[in-house]
Amino acid sequence: MKSTLRFDEIVLPAADLGETSSVPDLVGHVNLQQSNTEFVLGETDEIYEGYGQYPSAYPYRQNNGYKGELRQKKLKTAVLENAYLRAEFLTELGGRLWSLIDKSTGKNLLYTNDVLQFRNLAVCNAWFSGGVEWNIGIIGHSPFTTAPLYVANVKGDGYPILRMYEYERIRRVFYQMDFWLEEESRFLNCRMRVVNPGTEVVPMYWWSNIAVPEHEKGRIIVPAKQAYTSKAGKVYKVDIPVVEGVDVTRYKEIPQAVDYFFELEKDFPTYIAHLDETGYGLLHLSTKRLQSRKLFSWGNNEGSDRWQEFLTKDAGRYIEIQAGLGKTQYGCIPMAPHTAWEWMEQYGPVQLAKEDLSQSYEKLKSITADYILTKTEYPDLEEKLVSTKQTAKEPASAVACGSPFGAWEKERRGTEHLFFEDSGKHSKNDWQEFLKTGKLCSRDPKLPPGEFVIGRAYLDLLRKTVCTDNKDNWYAYYQLGVLEYQEGSYRHARKAFEKSLEIAENPWACHGLACVCLQEKEEAKTSRYICQGMALAKDELSYIKEGFRLLDLCHDSAGIVKWYEKLSKIQKQESRIRFLYAKALHQTGKSKEAFAILNENGGLIPDDFREGEVSVEQLWSEIQETLTGEKLPVPHVFRFSTNPSS
Questions:
Q1: Are 553 and 27 in contact (CB under 8 A)?
Q2: Would 4-399 and 427-555 be classified into the same CATH topology?
Q3: In the chain, N or C: fewer CB atoms in 10 Å?
Q4: What is the DSSP string of 269-314?
Q5: How far from the centroid of its chain's Cα atoms is residue 254's Cα?
Q6: Which residues of 125-154 are buried (b: 16+ CB within 10 A; e: fewer)?
Q7: CB 126 within 8 A of CB 64
């Protein structure tokens, strides 16, 4: 059959994403790749340790309004199909490649979740497991993980091309993904393009995160002799496949959650393969721009099991194999100004002889390389990247739209071939008119702020105009405070927020002042300002949730208990708020009440429980020991630590 592209829908049990946070992400959240780390490496490793780390998701808002309940929901999809493969994408959820069916076997080469269950693993909080996720810009799961992308179709050379793209605001780059299936091909083509149109070097990050099902005797094959990994806060290099007595390519033997970033051998094709016990599975190929591959395993212990349960219903366990621009995810790599980076990725089936699996790992790498060189399109992949360059810059027919920010940037630069729509829903007139006139439109102080912006142009003009055109504008002073905060100028941010509050009483400046005081370790003032803000925004659930988080961070347990009694019934049942209330009850001497809350309905787990968080099991253990004097094993429902010794 000829290759086809169609736009369709699937129905899936899904959580409601809810509304984004009403306040900017100023304080930030834990990111496991950005925690304090010591690098024990050699002078030739060049992994750009810590380069490009970014403390928050700003100017993107936190997607933290979801709940755990699932309901049947229609999801928009794009489907590419030929005689050999069927590839399905979730266009409104970061363009996720959701499934890839090998039609000759009927098998899905990817791990596809049976539910859409949002959990707190992304830089903007909400994330879900399954498929292939495209991560760009800053370290972690992309700000676009749950966002709709621009979707378009292009006429290729005898086949349709699915194009998805967006403008990434932190790094100020355009990125574009073109996907197609050629009529006689058994591999999905993915042509990626990232453009830095600016005049400065920017830290760049890209990782394609590929979820594949765990097989009891599954194995990964990657052309590497060494890998970077971390333990006890240190990043170091290890020989593979055997690490501390465990063959890490046989992932079911890995005891606890771990990352292995493989250093690819230059004389091999650029690949990673995931095989079942018969030698069948997924093969990922790429051009040389993607210089690393990674294995992520949740490990194999009770905490690992609990995380897998938390992320799915009946789809079973998964691991991730990944491909990235940098050698690791502990830093970004510098991207020159006025530069386009392009590469090809291919996804398709592989079938090695079952008896090959008993060969040594070194031999198995060579067998896989021979398979790639003789039975796939890999030898022509670099040439294909070059020959499709012109098509990649052709205009496309728009099918669906994403955010307006690319339109703002295009209007300023006028260089990019991609179509962007400015629908006017995102305060376009406010900020565009501000850059033209110097006057920022004010807003009702009771309503949440409009879009947040990033960049010196906005900051410099706000600094100048708050003394003239915006001298009586509470909103201009508030946005100035936010931008000063992002620059680390806490003293100037404080003055701007205080002036905003002086002009008009508003909860948004109260939140800004609370964040400044938290950074300056002024805990009493943090509590006072956020309580003032919650009183002004008492009906805004996301604000109350952020308020409780700040009260917890400044150790005001009494303030949490006091405020909880003022909340509405719905607010009291929000899982993170209720958990922080239970914690505060315990810390104020009411451990019995706290324990009852923690154990209600089979166990209280915040819907937005964060990867790497140990607060629930710690609280259960502390209360249990306080009430009984005994140190008992943590019940399975609270057991999220993937380190067996914890």
A1: yes
A2: no
A3: N
A4: -SEEEEE-TTSEEEEEEE-TTS-EEEEEEEESSHHHHHHHHHH-SS
A5: 24
A6: bbbbbbbbbbbbbbbbbbbbbbbbbbbbbb
A7: yes
Domain ranges (residues) in the chain: 4-399, 427-555, 571-646
Residue with structure tokens 């003789």?
A: 374
Both tokens of 614, joined, read 């140990």
Amino acid identity of residue 41, one-letter, is: L
Helix axes 541-553, 523-536, angle to 10 degrees: 170
What six digits make up the tokens of 334?
A: 């510098």
CATH classification of 427-555, choosing from 1.25.40.10, 1.20.1070.10, 1.10.12.10, 1.10.1200.10?
Answer: 1.25.40.10
Burial track 1-38 (b if 16+ CB lie within 10 A, e otherwise): eebebeeeeeebebbebbebbbbbbbbebebbbbeeee
Residue 572 has φ and ψ, to the nearest 5°, of -65, -25
Residue 243, beta-bridge partner list: 246
Tell me how far apart the alpha carbons of residues 532 and 535 are, in angstroms, rounded to a whole number.
Answer: 5
Q: How far apart are CA 202 and CA 175, in angstroms?
A: 14
Could you tell me which of 16, 212, 264 has the C-alpha nearest to residue 99? 212
Pick the more confident residue, 115 or 419.
Answer: 115
Distance in angstroms (rounded) separating the CA atoms of residues 98 and 95: 9
Tokens of 573: 């049942």
Let me know: does 154 contact 394? Beta carbons within 8 Å: yes
Backbone angles phi, psi at 538, to 5 degrees: -65, -15
Query: What six digits make up the tokens of 514?
Result: 């609370």
Of 40-54, 494-508, 578-592, minimum mean pLDDT range: 40-54
The DSSP call for residue 79 is E
Using the structure block, give the residue that is written with the tokens 């090998």. 102
Nearest CA-CA partner of 620 in 579, 571, 588, 589 = 579
Contacts with 573 (C-beta within 8 Å, 6 or more apart), sequence order: none
Question: pLDDT tens, 158-216?
Answer: 899 999 999 999 999 999 999 999 999 999 999 999 999 999 999 999 999 999 999 99
> How many alpha carbons lie under 13 Å from residue 536 in its C-beta half-sphere?
20
Which fold does the domain 4-399 belong to in CATH?
Answer: Beta-galactosidase; Chain A, domain 5 (2.70.98)
Using DSSP, state whether 443 is helix, strand or coil. coil
Q: Comparing C-alpha atoms, which of 628, 524, 610, 627 is closest to residue 62?
A: 610
* pLDDT at site 35: 61
Q: How confident is the model at residue 426 (pLDDT cuts 50, 70, 90)?
A: very low
